[in-house]
Amino acid sequence: QQQLVESGGGSVQPGGSLRLSCAASGFTVDSYAIRWFRQAPGQAREAISCISADGNTYYADSVKGRFTISRDNIKNTVYLQMNSLRPEDTAVYYCKGRRGNYCPDLYSGSWGQGTQVTVSS
Description:
The chain has a six-stranded mixed beta sheet with strand order 2-10-9-4-5-6, with no helix packed on it. The chain has a four-stranded antiparallel beta sheet with strand order 1-3-8-7, with no helix packed on it. It contains no helices and ten strands. It has strands at 3-7, 10-12, 18-25, 32-39, 46-51, 57-59, 67-72, 77-82, 91-99, 115-119. It is mostly beta strands.
């Protein structure tokens, strides 16, 4: 069974950092595009970063320069390093995968439980 499990969320002050993990089972992350999404309270879910199977990375303008997506093929996990966090980064963060180089969209596949990130002073 193919599964992705998010972890690593928490509460931090503005300017702080967190590293989220998206652990895969039932498939290898280096053959999939993995995308991070987030959903803030009262707002639509949005895509924020993706790493394709061939290693290309993509970022939404709102996180570019602050967030870094990476992949550990041995641990079969994709990470999202989040620096310079802002209150507007507060959201539940989710990951989703799609075989190949095309990043998954909002509408196909299923969602995990996500991990909560809260940025507040």
